[in-house]
C-alpha cells in the first residue's frame, strides 16, 4: 500500500490515523524472535518498529522529515493504548511502550476509528439595509429575495437599450451601511473564500460558523500597525512586558537592547525555557480549539503553495485579535531563533529548530479532545508557519479588495426603470464548478436563447404594433441577436409571412379629351423684305 496525500476536508486527522495504521500493518516486517528460551512467530522488536515507522513518517508527504524519533515513540505508545499493537502475551491498553528490545505483534485486527457525526450548522442570513429606508429610527430588515419570472415585458424594460428605446427611470438610494452590516459582509465573504480555497462543498464539517466573530475579522484587518501587527483595544490582553523583553532578547541575539542585567553561561537557555513555560501554561492554543479542524484541513494543501498560503491567511483572520497578535510575535521569534547562527545551541541532543518546534507546537495547535496525531500535525503546521510567516500573517489583499468593492457597490446609486418590480432581487451567485463542453453549450443555448426567442415571438405576433414599428423592432433585434433571429426566420420568405401583401388595384387611366387634334409643327421660311 503506497502512502498518499490526504487532502483537506472533514475528519482529516481521523483519516490520517486510519491510513497510518493500514500502512504500518501492511508494511512492518514480521519475523521469528526468541525471548526467554521461547520462540514467537510473526512479531517485531520495539526498536525495529520505531525505526520502520519513523522512516515511513519521514517519507510521507502528510508529515515529512520534521518528525522526530521521540514523536514516533509517542505515536507507538498510542498504538499500544488503542490496541493497534500488543505485546507477545496479548497485553495492551497502557502507554508503556519503550524504544527497546521488547517484542510486540499485531492483533488479528487493528481497530480503525469511525468518523464522528456532527450536527449540521444552520446558516446565518446576512442582513443589509433595504432601498429607500429611513436613515434613523428603523431596524435593519432582511432583503426579501423571491424568484423572478422573466416575461417579455420585464425583459424588454431591462434590456430596452439593446432594443433601441429607453424607458423612464429614477435613482434609488440605499441608506448608509452600519458597522454591523460591514462586519457581517466581511464574515460572509471571508468564510466563502475559505470554503472555495479548501475546495469543500460546505464548511459545516470543519467549522461551526456561529463561533466566528465578525468583529474579530474586521479588527484583524484594519487595526494594525506599520508592521502588520494587530493593535489591541483591551491592553490587559497584551503580553506581559517581561515576556516581550525575553522574546526580543532571543530574537535579536546577541543584541539585547532591553536587557539590563549581565548575561552568564547558559543564560539564553534559561530565557528560552521561561518563554516556553509561559506559552505552555495557556489553557487554549493560539489557533483555538474550534479552528483545529480548519487548520488540519489546510495541511492537505501543502503541495499547492499558493493555495495553502491563502488558506492560512484567511484562517488566521478568524482568530481573536489577542491570539493573532501573540501568534505573530511568537512565530516571528521562533523563525529568527531557528536561523540565527550567532545564537548558541539551546539543546545538546536536538537542533535549535527541532527544539523550537517541539516546545511551541502544542501551544499553537492542539485539539480539545485527545487526538492521536495532533502533535505530529501541529509540528508540521508550525514548521510551515516558521518558514512562511511573513506571507501567512499578512492581510490577504485579494479578499480585502473584493470585500471593499462589494461594500462600495451596495452603497452605490441604483437605477430603477418605471414599471419594473422594485422588490425583485436576484440571489447571490453560487460557487463555480467545472462542467463539460457539451453541458456548457446546452446551458448557453437554453439559458440565453430561450428568453430572447420568447421575446422575438411576442414582437412578431403583437397585433397592436403597426407594420412600421414592428419592422423597426425586428430589424433592431436582428442587429443585436442575429443567431436567435436566424433560427426564427431562416429565410426571407419566413419573415415575409408576417407582412402579407395587400391586393393593390391599379388606378384607371385618365383619358384626357383633346379639344383640338394634334397638329404637327410646320417649319416656315422667312423672307426678307
UniProtKB/TrEMBL annotation:
Pfam families membership: DEP (PF00610), RhoGAP (PF00620)
Residue ranges of the TM segments: none
Domain Rho-GAP: 201-393
Domain DEP residues, every copy: 24-108
Keywords per UniProt: GTPase activation
InterPro entries the UniProt entry points to: DEP_dom, Rho_GTPase_activation_prot, RhoGAP_dom, WH-like_DNA-bd_sf, WH_DNA-bd_sf
Disulfide bond found in the keyword field: no
BP GO terms, sorted: intracellular signal transduction; positive regulation of Wnt signaling pathway
SMART domains: DEP
GO MF, one annotated term: GTPase activator activity
Keyword Cell division: no
Protein name: DEP domain-containing protein 1B
Organism: Crypturellus soui
Gene giving rise to this polypeptide: Depdc1b
Amino acid at each position: 500500500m503506497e502512502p498518499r496525500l490526504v487532502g483537506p476536508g472533514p475528519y482529516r486527522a481521523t483519516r490520517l490515523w486510519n491510513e497510518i495504521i493500514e500502512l504500518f500493518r501492511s508494511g512492518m516486517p514480521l519475523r521469528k524472535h526468541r525471548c526467554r528460551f521461547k520462540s514467537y512467530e510473526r512479531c517485531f522488536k520495539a526498536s525495529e518498529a520505531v525505526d520502520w515507522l519513523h522512516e515511513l513518517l519521514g517519507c510521507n508527504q502528510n508529515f515529512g522529515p520534521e518528525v522526530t524519533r521521540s514523536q514516533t515513540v509517542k505515536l507507538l505508545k498510542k498504538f499500544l493504548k488503542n490496541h493497534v499493537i500488543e505485546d507477545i502475551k496479548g497485553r495492551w491498553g497502557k502507554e508503556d511502550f519503550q524504544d527497546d528490545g521488547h517484542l510486540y505483534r499485531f492483533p488479528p485486527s487493528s481497530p480503525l476509528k469511525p468518523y464522528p457525526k456532527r450536527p449540521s450548522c444552520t446558516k446565518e442570513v446576512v442582513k443589509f439595509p433595504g432601498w429607500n429606508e429611513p436613515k434613523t429610527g428603523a431596524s435593519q430588515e432582511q432583503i426579501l429575495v423571491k424568484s423572478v419570472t422573466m416575461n417579455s415585458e420585464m425583459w424588454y424594460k431591462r434590456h430596452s437599450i439593446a432594443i433601441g428605446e429607453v424607458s423612464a427611470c429614477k435613482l434609488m438610494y440605499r441608506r448608509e451601511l452600519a458597522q454591523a452590516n460591514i462586519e457581517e459582509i466581511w464574515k460572509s465573504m471571508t468564510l466563502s473564500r475559505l470554503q472555495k480555497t479548501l475546495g469543500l462543498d460546505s464548511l459545516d464539517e470543519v467549522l461551526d460558523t456561529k463561533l466566528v466573530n465578525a468583529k474579530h475579522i474586521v479588527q484583524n484587518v484594519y487595526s494594525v500597525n506599520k508592521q502588520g501587527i494587530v493593535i489591541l483595544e483591551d491592553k490587559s490582553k497584551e503580553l506581559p512586558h517581561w515576556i516581550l523583553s525575553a522574546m526580543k532578547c532571543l530574537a535579536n541575539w546577541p543584541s539585547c537592547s532591553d536587557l539590563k542585567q549581565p548575561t552568564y553561561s547558559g543564560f539564553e537557555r534559561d530565557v528560552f525555557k521561561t518563554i516556553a513555560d509561559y506559552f505552555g501554561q495557556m489553557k487554549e492554543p493560539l489557533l483555538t480549539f474550534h479552528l483545529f479542524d480548519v487548520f488540519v484541513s489546510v495541511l492537505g494543501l501543502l503541495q499547492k503553495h499558493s493555495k495553502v498560503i491563502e488558506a492560512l491567511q484567511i484562517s488566521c483572520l478568524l482568530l481573536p485579535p489577542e491570539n493573532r497578535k501573540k501568534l505573530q510575535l511568537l512565530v516571528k521569534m521562533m523563525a529568527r531563533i531557528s536561523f540565527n547562527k550567532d545564537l548558541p545551541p539551546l539543546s545538546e541532543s536536538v537542533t535549535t529548530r527541532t527544539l523550537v518546534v517541539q516546545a511551541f507546537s502544542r501551544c499553537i495547535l492542539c485539539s480539545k479532545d485527545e487526538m492521536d496525531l495532533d502533535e505530529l500535525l501541529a509540528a508540521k503546521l508550525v514548521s510551515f508557519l516558521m518558514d512562511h510567516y511573513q506571507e501567512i500573517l499578512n492581510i490577504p489583499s485579494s479578499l480585502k479588495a473584493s470585500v471593499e468593492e462589494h461594500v462600495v457597490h451596495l452603497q452605490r446609486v441604483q437605477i430603477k426603470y418605471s414599471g419594473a418590480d422594485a422588490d425583485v432581487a436576484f440571489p447571490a451567485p453560487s460557487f463555480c464548478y467545472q462542467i463539460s463542453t457539451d453541458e456548457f453549450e446546452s446551458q448557453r443555448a437554453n439559458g440565453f436563447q430561450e428568453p430572447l426567442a420568447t421575446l422575438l415571438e411576442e414582437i412578431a405576433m403583437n397585433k397592436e404594433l403597426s407594420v412600421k414599428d414592428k419592422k423597426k423592432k425586428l430589424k433592431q433585434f436582428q442587429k443585436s441577436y442575429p443567431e436567435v433571429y436566424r433560427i426564427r426566420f431562416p429565410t426571407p420568405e419566413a419573415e415575409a409571412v408576417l407582412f402579407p401583401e395587400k391586393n393593390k388595384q391599379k388606378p384607371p387611366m385618365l383619358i384626357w379629351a383633346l379639344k383640338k387634334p394634334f397638329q404637327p409643327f410646320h417649319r416656315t421660311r422667312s423672307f426678307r423684305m
